[in-house]
Recover the amino acids of this structure.
């Protein structure tokens, strides 16, 4: 056969537009994107009829925590690379960018990278790449930046909060300078740690320990102050940054003002800030712990609206999951991990922060029907690929260049809206914060480099971990990622390798 797989009758979505075209796949690459019907007489090993449904590039989730050590209190990551990447492909995400976590006690990042490779190698269902998580920017660690760059790392994350990970402002400046010199993008978790600790003390004095006080202890002002400080430090060094998991319209506004001044400030938000509020932390018993993350879900739908607007106007470059998996019931003790003699009802400060969401990110967002389809693709796939050096291999349908990673959705009227249940998911977590939420869409098929990994109506997960498919992706060697990000992109970062390329090249009509 001439091709291995044809996808016909789809509405093919890119970050630019939606077109009625057919897709031909050869091996693991997109071979052709052609006008409707042109492939009708072509031979192919398999043809999938999309029946008029949307076909999108596979999701790129740029914020995933797997197999990390305990952050504080009890509980380390419940998902391994195997279960986390499995969950990803079942939800339409074909590339995950996972943190390689350095500990404060460690003086090297290269060893961290090597150890993380060992955890992932041969275990994954999806393609994967890494961000280095820098907890100890020692002279030795900073001197490793060129070697990290050679090893395909173009991004790192630092924290302004959490005792185990927090950097002071001087350390942040050290990281930003070294990152700028080597074309690395710095992702920043921006919350004011002292403000959080002070609020926690006030709550403890009043014996307010329930999960809902996690939100009280992480006020919007902690995010506002740290976001503004991060922008100042970035502007001072003239280094690009990406503010991760922004939760509040107020912080988004500060980011937009910086962007409007032409600064290379990018931002990320997550489904928890579009679909959860602080009231989800206020449930009977300890249930609210299932929605505890930092920053916390905010006040109301008014905040959600502000975050949607930030996605629409380009303030947010990416919509990632911040998948951070913890078990609700502790296997070892049979008790919730934060309940002990001292706090028989539990204490919010010992709840491990983070929600699972790598599998639900795309469906929640699609089901909301709020974003235009091209915008959906831009923020859930294309922009992450561009920012982190994977474009156009990922996040696009460029013939002969893009991997054949795609999602075929359900055509209108084919899927009855259904209530999400945790047992439908493929992570290793015993809950989803979105239990019982009504969804209107779910990936019908997920294709990873030409191979159907997920076929919801015929076997579900049919791909395997560790077969020839899943690969480590090196961030492409860009001459100067920092300079690229400094362009006034407003949500559409460009890869220097692609600059000057007309958009029309994304769809090539072949005879
Ligand atoms: O609560 C969260 N976000 N947990 C994951 C760790 C982080 O800060 O991204
Ligand atoms: Zn964070
Ligand atoms: Zn995170
Ligand atoms: Zn921008």
């Amino acid at each position: 056969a001439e091709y291995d797989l044809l996808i016909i009758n789809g509405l093919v979505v890119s970050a630019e537009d939606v077109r009625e075209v057919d897709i031909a796949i050869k091996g693991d690459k997109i071979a052709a994107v052609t006008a409707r019907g042109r492939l009708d007489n072509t031979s192919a090993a398999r043809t999938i009829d999309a029946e008029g449904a949307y076909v999108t590039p596979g999701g790129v989730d740029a914020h995933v925590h797997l197999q990390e050590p305990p952050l504080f209190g009890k509980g380390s990551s419940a998902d391994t690379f195997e279960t986390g990447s499995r969950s990803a492909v079942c939800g339409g995400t074909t590339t995950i960018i996972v943190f390689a976590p350095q500990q404060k006690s460690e003086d090297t990042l290269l060893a961290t990278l090597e150890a993380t490779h060992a955890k992932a190698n041969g275990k994954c269902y999806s393609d994967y790449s890494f961000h280095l998580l820098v907890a100890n920017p020692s002279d030795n660690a900073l001197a490793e930046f060129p070697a990290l760059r050679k090893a395909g790392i173009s991004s790192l994350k630092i924290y302004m909060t959490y005792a185990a990970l927090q950097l002071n402002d001087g350390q942040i400046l050290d990281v930003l300078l070294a990152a700028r010199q080597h074309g690395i993008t710095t992702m920043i978790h921006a919350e004011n740690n002292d403000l959080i600790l002070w609020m926690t003390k006030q709550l403890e004095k009043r014996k307010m320990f329930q999960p809902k006080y996690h939100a009280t202890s992480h006020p919007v002002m902690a995010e506002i102050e740290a976001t503004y400080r991060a922008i100042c430090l970035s502007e001072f060094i003239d280094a690009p940054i990406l503010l991760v998991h922004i939760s509040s319209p107020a912080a988004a506004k500060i980011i937009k003002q910086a962007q409007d001044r032409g600064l290379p400030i990018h931002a990320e938000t997550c489904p928890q800030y579009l679909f959860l509020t602080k009231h989800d932390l206020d449930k009977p018993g300890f249930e609210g712990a299932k929605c505890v993350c930092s920053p916390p879900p905010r006040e109301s739908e008014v905040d959600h609206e502000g975050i949607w607007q930030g996605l629409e106007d380009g303030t947010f470059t990416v919509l990632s999951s911040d998948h951070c998996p913890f078990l609700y019931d502790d296997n070892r003790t049979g008790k919730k991990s934060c309940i002990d003699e001292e706090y028989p009802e539990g204490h919010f400060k010992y709840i491990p922060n983070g929600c699972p969401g790598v599998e639900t990110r795309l469906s929640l967002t699609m089901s909301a029907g709020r974003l235009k389809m091209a915008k959906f693709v831009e923020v859930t796939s294309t922009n992450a690929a561009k920012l982190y050096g994977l474009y156009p291999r990922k996040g696009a349908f460029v013939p002969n260049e893009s991997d054949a990673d795609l999602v075929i959705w359900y055509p209108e009227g084919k899927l009855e809206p259904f209530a999400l249940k945790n047992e439908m998911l493929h992570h290793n977590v015993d809950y989803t914060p979105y239990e019982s939420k009504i969804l209107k869409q779910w990936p019908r098929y997920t294709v990873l480099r030409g191979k159907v990994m997920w076929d919801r109506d015929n076997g579900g997960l049919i791909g395997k971990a560790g077969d020839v498919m899943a690969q480590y992706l090196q961030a492409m060697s860009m001459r100067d990622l920092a300079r690229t990000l400094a362009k006034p992109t407003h949500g559409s970062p460009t890869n220097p390798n692609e600059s000057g390329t007309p958009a029309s090249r994304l769809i090539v009509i072949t005879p």
Remarks:
- The longest helix spans residues 220-237.
- Confidence is low (pLDDT under 50) at residues 478-492, 494-511.
- The CA atoms of residues 331 and 337 lie 9 Å apart.
- DSSP finds 14 helices and 19 strands in the chain.
